[in-house]
Amino acid sequence: MIRVVCPGSFDPVTNGHLDIISRAAKLHDEVVVAVLRNPSKSSLFTADERVEILAEVTKGISNVKVAKFDGLIVDFCRANDISAIVKGLRAVSDFDYEMQMAQMNYNQAGVETLFMTTNPLYAFLSSSLVKEFARFGGDVAGLAPDPVLRRLTERLVAG
Length: 159
Ligand code: PNS
Fold this sequence. Notes:
159 residues; alpha/beta; Rossmann fold; binds 4'-phosphopantetheine
């Protein structure tokens, strides 16, 4: 049984993340989507809200599970019998840092990292840009799943 993890902040999950998660689920027995709970970084949605949204938008994919983690991703991998981290690479600009993290994680814990190329439809997409456009009235339909769009409106209107 090959269990992999897609880790991230997912604040909020975008259609680019979902594309990688669903493609990873076709290639592995189980995919754990691990939401980083980082109290030192301010986020629009709490870790519990991000988990709830991810559970809702992945409920149709039976081999995807959603969890929360803090600390090191390699410790989460060890504790959950996960052999590899799956990451999406959007552009060359992602490469340097992702490569550094992948090599550190392998060096420290022997955890592999598998890179998938992002669907070009989502190459420009990030959670930060979705939040910024939504905050200033931009149309982000098509960039994030419906539960995110709904909650973005509620959260940003509520201020
Ligand atoms: O969505 P993000 O914020 O780009 O995801 C980054 C994330 C959560 C995958 C990365 O920061 C991470 O793995 N953080 C956990 C802490 C850790 O293990 N740091 C060492 C990485 S070599």
